[in-house]
Amino acid sequence: MAAISPQKPSLKVLLCSPRGFCAGVVRAIDTVERALALHGPPVYVRHEIVHNRYVVDGLRAKGAIFVESLDEIPDTTAPVVFSAHGVPKSVPDEAIRRHLYSIDATCPLVTKVHREAELHHRRGREIILVGHAGHPEVVGTIGQLPIGSVHLVETIAHAENFVPRDARNLAYVTQTTLSVDDTAEIVAVLKRRFPGIVGPHKEDICYATTNRQEAVKRVAPIVDALIVVGSPNSSNSQRLKEVAMRNGCAYAVLTQRAADIDWSKFERVRRIGITAGASAPEVLVQEIVDAFAQRFALDIEIIAGAEEEVFFPLPRPLRGSEAAE
Hints:
This protein has helices at residues 23-39, 53-62, 90-97, 108-122, 136-142, 156-161, 180-193, 207-219, 235-246, 282-293, 320-324; strands at residues 10-17, 43-46, 64-67, 79-82, 101-104, 126-130, 150-153, 170-174, 225-229, 252-255, 271-276, 297-304. By secondary structure, the protein is of the alpha/beta class. Strands 10-9-11-1-12 form a five-stranded parallel sheet, with helices on both faces. The model has no long low-confidence stretch (mean pLDDT 95).
């Protein structure tokens, strides 16, 4: 007589939507792939094009070479791509000095923050940047202007203790991948302390960050655990984990691949949420769903939020007939 296999425990899976790639990430990845198609390998990329190891490894296998500094690139006619996070002005200046063929894949929403900061500087305002020290986007934004023009504020305590040169002549900008709620609290402190501070006409936190956090807020209170598919150096992915825990989820974890899952944490779980950071591909979400399907009988429901139809064209040197010339 054949052995009867034990029945899998049931598991309700709430898939957050939207999740995964945003328009800026799609544009950045397509930039590297288009450059490889047009020019052949190698294509040099300064910093990870987006913060996802799976994506970076895939592009590396196609001939992309990732570096942290232009000093690592030999004199070459090969394309050099700047990552989606943006770079200080010193980087393209150095590329010009060395006659490198550079292609800027900075997300247009990051470029928007750069332009805002430049405008405030031209108008003589002291600038506060709300963001996380060391993040490449923050480094790039600060590097748009002369040293001392931009002051980084990371926390409410920083905002409470910041001493400007002239409290009547201030402006603020923000990193695009922050927690919406945390940033609102910091900005509220700045506005209370400096009522005349000038902010962006439209919030700097990007649509994708906002939409993914809103989706997590809906799911977090009604699941036993939530998985964020993403890399540990991805700011927007880290913020999704924090948002889940802040909104009532008892266990939230950032996971890169199915192989990284600690299954002991899910033995008594009956409802989980799954989302993905803006730099995580959908194939990794499906990989994790499939891993759960091997252990549980899944009932999958999509929790739909904002519709996203944003599209950014490729950098000009790679568009259509211009790229073929």
